[in-house]
């Protein structure tokens, strides 16, 4: 492996620090929890994680934390993601690829609208405001 310069190391540290800041929970009220068990990773959860982090950075959303968890028990629809947004029901999405992760940020997190075709643990109809 080639040696890195001091400047390259500083850039790497700054980029990783930004990623770690997104995992900090204090003062953040929106939570995105990605199933990163063996089944989720095999199904592409790393791509989903990267897409969430990229989209959050793109929209400069500060009050979102991204966390990882083990298997959520929905192996048949991996990758799975739980989204908790104040004023909305907690929702579990399945088959979350990079494109769906971006839609969850733009629609669910920013616009307050559920991404219907990927919901696998749907809140009761009387809870959801249309």
What descriptive keywords fit this protein?
alpha+beta; Glutaredoxin; globular; 5 strands; 5-stranded mixed sheet; 130 residues
Short description:
The chain has 130 residues and is α+β, with helices and mostly antiparallel strands. It has four helices and five strands.
Distance between the amino and carboxyl termini: 55 Å
Envelope shape: globular
CATH topology-level fold name: Glutaredoxin
Report the uncertain regions. none
Give the CATH class: Alpha Beta
Please tell me the total number of domains. Answer: 1
Give the ordered list of helices and strands.
Answer: HEHHEEEHE
Describe the fold and architecture.
- The chain is of the alpha+beta class and 130 residues long.
- The protein has one domain: Glutaredoxin, CATH 3.40.30.
- The chain is built from 4 helices and 5 strands.
- It has helices at 6-21, 38-43, 45-59, 98-111; strands at 30-35, 64-69, 81-84, 91-93, 119-121.
- The protein has a 5-stranded mixed beta sheet with strand order 2-1-3-4-5, with helices on one face.
- It is globular, with a radius of gyration of 16 Å.
- The model has no long low-confidence stretch (mean pLDDT 86).
């Amino acid at each position: 492996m080639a040696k890195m310069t001091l400047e390259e190391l500083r850039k790497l540290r700054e980029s990783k620090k930004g990623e770690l800041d997104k995992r900090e929970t204090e003062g953040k009220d929106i939570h995105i929890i990605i199933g990163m068990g063996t089944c989720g990773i095999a199904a592409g959860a790393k791509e989903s994680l990267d897409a969430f982090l990229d989209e959050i950075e793109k929209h400069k959303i500060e009050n979102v934390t991204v966390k990882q968890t083990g298997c959520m028990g929905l192996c048949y629809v991996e990758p799975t993601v739980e989204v908790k947004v104040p004023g909305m029901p907690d929702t579990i999405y399945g088959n979350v690829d990079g494109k769906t992760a971006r839609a969850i940020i733009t629609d669910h997190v920013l616009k307050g609208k559920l991404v219907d075709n990927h919901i696998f643990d749907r809140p009761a109809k009387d809870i959801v405001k249309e």
